[in-house]
């Protein structure tokens, strides 16, 4: 076993930091390291935190971390910034967080920003969670800003997903919020001391009631699963988890204990009747599918001469061939036609 | 040729509406219809409009549409809502727009929302643009809310992309904005009569200056291109397009003429020295790559028995096998190993 791997498994902070850099940069050989770590994963509880901008997610993550520390848990934080490297991709509130939590060896914070490849960020996040998991952190928090498919992909690796809202976010933000509401296991109305908090709670409740009176606890987002997962018993009433709505004021700690309680309830729910195993299966199915897709593409592009592809693209551009026919032509060239 | 296709080509509104429904629902046979339309595309100028929530994009699209109508252009609008069907996915401002522009045969408005498949939305949008293009609309506007990879994928089909900002959007929104700044061909500070407009313009200018003093006009977003595109001469100074920053008050039409002018300048820039052709090639390369990826996955899943895959997933879950090894095992089963 390499020194790096044994360092990570021993919880050595420098080894963990170096391994996370490998995960971000994906040099040759990183797959082998991840293979070596993989048998040592599966122990951390992974909490996803997402929501519309301006809801105070970073402050909430801070407050949660302190509360878990008081309970003797080691906490790893991965702050994912799906914005571009264009402005350097600084994580909001990161400096504040660093100041608050630095010097505590039971906390490890890592920011991850896209390096020109948004698609790879979800994979890097998943791998980073595994590094912290293997490194002995009992709680791993994945925080992301925003509300698009990226964020859904990123928090899909979580066991419990918190969707954070706040009063007075406006209509436009409400619409964005809808997209991530369905991935929420726990809804948090933060900044609940502000005017309008009661209406925000009521609005969320209405959305939940209208949309999904309850949902299958093992849902892993709304991408269609393509890989088969071992069949499970049909859901019955008790198999559903109705996301609770909690009010917090993260800046002064109000409601944080109740939030920890709700996360714990959700964990109990999943750990009952094989639900966690079923959810993990679905998550692995998605991961394998994504990796398979990447590999297939790479191999096809190795087999088809690049000037053959250029020529097809030019024919499409001249409108002599449509994109679908061009794809069929490539598939024929790799002997993979229907 | 089917009645539907000849109807679309004749600009018949009912035929166009029916064809757009096909594009959204993807029934068997829709590929054949798109193949028949494809040779008749490539005439419309496609304008993407995106930006953070609350910036007044819908009002801006309205104002632009009226201005193009006054110039005798027919305008098709595709309003894409990347939020989920959870709340019905209503497009913001859609009713206002409908009221303003309805009754004008030179305008065609279509809302598209995700139907449980965010990945498919970019493809459906691209196909919808082709339907309106073949239907004779000289200007096609694709409007989308938000700032994630979805929106980038969606506006990637555009020739000219407007990124809309507004004063007083807050720090958190600034960070999200960064992700889409680099896809902007024209930056619009809307609601420019509000306090802080000057600062917003200055902040955008600083971000542009810091990040990219100028960028290659043929860029099509920041996904790495995998398919080869015919090589082009090395860029020289005049081959760069520096995104202008324009101030508008869309609600009263202020600045709209200048915006139309800026879009026209960008079009002139692209139509010079083969840049448009190069950009189209890159867009087609991405489209072909995406379709290829989908096809490859479908075919592999047809060839590998589903219980073999289930068994692999269970081994991963037991941590006896890591996801990467599981993928290699599937590739071996389809005779596609390295």
Task: Describe, in plain words, how this protein is organized in 3D.
The structure is a homodimer of 338-residue chains. With 338 residues, the first copy, chain A, is α/β, with parallel strands linked by helices. The first copy, chain A, folds into 2 domains: 1-38, no CATH class; 41-274, 3-Layer(aba) Sandwich (Rossmann fold), CATH 3.40.50.300. Chain A is 49% helix and 13% strand. Chain A is built from 13 helices and 9 strands. The first copy, chain A, has helices at 3-9, 13-25, 30-37, 57-70, 94-101, 118-134, 149-155, 171-181, 197-211, 256-270, 275-303, 306-317, 323-333, and strands spanning 45-51, 75-81, 107-113, 139-144, 160-165, 186-189, 215-216, 240-241, 245-247. In chain A, helix 5 links the parallel strand 2 (75-81) and strand 3. In chain A, helix 4 crosses helix 10. The longest helix of chain A is centred in the last third of the chain and has 29 residues, at 275-303.
What is this structure's SSE topology?
Two copies of one chain form a homodimer.
Chain A: H1 3-9, H2 13-25, H3 30-37, E1 45-51, H4 57-70, E2 75-81, H5 94-101, E3 107-113, H6 118-134, E4 139-144, H7 149-155, E5 160-165, H8 171-181, E6 186-189, H9 197-211, E7 215-216, E8 240-241, E9 245-247, H10 256-270, H11 275-303, H12 306-317, H13 323-333
Parallel strand pairs in A: 1-4, 1-5, 2-3, 2-4, 5-6, 6-9
Antiparallel strand pairs in A: 7-8
Helix pairs in contact in A: 1-2, 2-6, 4-5, 4-10, 6-7, 12-13
